[in-house]
């Protein structure tokens, strides 16, 4: 009789975070790094936004970044490319960051909601604002990114990001520039989302809002340093 020995585990067997990511059943202990978070976002079923999105869009930037910038959700360009802030709003943010002296490659940029919420309009996909339930469902991923990156400062851009970061609505015009302590020990700031600036019809009002965004980026970078 030939002895049969148990097969040795394959050296290429996926880690639990990769294996469970297929059905979205990740636990907090599985999210050991940003790669695991990104894999989990791709398989996330915590709300229904994944159904109409091309892919999930995790945050991008170095682990250990002192500054985290949180936007609302991926747009059309981000949904197709799988990278945050690469569309028109992202280009405006890049310009504002450069003017503020913020090095984007040293910042972790992400969104409150990881899938693109939209409605078709002919050949276009028009942005729709995530509702409170969708923001709350996706906060699990944002909290994981914050826990792993451990930034000193979190800058929330726009109302959806403010609700996700602070857990409540805040009037941006009245609270921008004010430091606020967050549960994780970080300092929080709020500012305008670049997409809001792009929708302002009056050039003078748009220039004022852009100058405020630059000022808020400068303050966040200074605090993070």
What features would you describe in this structure?
The protein has one domain: Uracil-DNA Glycosylase, subunit E. It contains nine helices and seven strands. Helices cover 40% and strands 13% of the residues. With 225 residues, it is α/β, with parallel strands linked by helices. It is globular and about 40 Å long. The protein has helices spanning 16-20, 34-42, 76-81, 88-100, 132-149, 159-166, 172-175, 194-199, 203-224; strands at 67-71, 107-111, 118-121, 124-127, 153-157, 180-181, 187-191. It has a five-stranded mixed sheet with strand order 2-1-5-7-6, with helices on both faces.
Concise synopsis of the structure shown:
This protein has 225 residues and is of the alpha/beta class. It has helices spanning 16-20, 34-42, 76-81, 88-100, 132-149, 159-166, 172-175, 194-199, 203-224, and strands at residues 67-71, 107-111, 118-121, 124-127, 153-157, 180-181, 187-191. Helix content is 40%, strand content 13%.
Please count the helical segments: 9
Question: Can you tell me the number of structural domains?
Answer: 1
| Overall morphology | globular
Radius of gyration: 19 Å
CATH C-level class is: Alpha Beta
Number of extended strands: 7
List the quaternary state of the chains. Answer: single chain
Q: On the 0-100 scale, what is the average pLDDT?
A: 89
For CATH, the homologous superfamily is named as Uracil-DNA glycosylase-like domain
Strands in their spatial order, largest beta sheet: 2-1-5-7-6
At CATH level 3, the topology is: Uracil-DNA Glycosylase, subunit E
Approximate strand percentage:
5-15%
- Please summarize the sheet with the most strands: 5 strands, mixed
In angstroms, what separates the terminal alpha carbons?
Answer: 70 Å
The helix-strand sequence is: HHEHHEEEHEHHEEHH
CATH architectural group: 3-Layer(aba) Sandwich
Helix content: 40-55%
What structural class should be given to the helix and strand makeup?
Answer: alpha/beta
The low-confidence runs, each spanning 5 or more residues with pLDDT under 50, are 1-24
